[in-house]
Amino acid sequence: MSKTVKNHSAMKTDESEKALKILMETGMDQSTAIRWAMKFTANVLEAAWLAGHEDRGTVPQMRVQYKVKERGADV
Fold it and tell me: Is residue 56 domain-resident?
């Protein structure tokens, strides 16, 4: 059985602080935002590997497409 690490530590950078600030715009606190980002990233990687886009352990090249938000008639 592996031991669960309860606290993680990573050096803060300007880039990581900017990313965290963006995540927190959703109303999440720092801890929740970091856990959410880790889970989201892990799920994306797992899906890419299972779909065969890259070998497991390889960071895939990804593009993200967004549906354009419809604007109201008054805009």
Answer: yes
Joined together, the tokens standing for residue 25 give 């715009």
Name the residue type at position 5: V
Q: Is residue 21 part of a domain?
A: yes
> Would you say residue 58 lies in a domain?
yes
Task: Please provide the average confidence, as pLDDT, over all residues in the chain.
Answer: 88
Is 3 part of any domain? no
Residue pLDDT, tens place only, 4-26:
767 888 899 999 999 999 999 99
Q: Is 51 exposed, middle or buried (0-12, 13-18, 19+ CB in 10 A)?
A: exposed
Could you tell me the pTM of the whole model?
0.72
- Picking from 13, 48, 17, 46, the residue whose alpha carbon sits closest to that of residue 34 is 17
Backbone angles phi, psi at 27, to 5 degrees: 100, -5
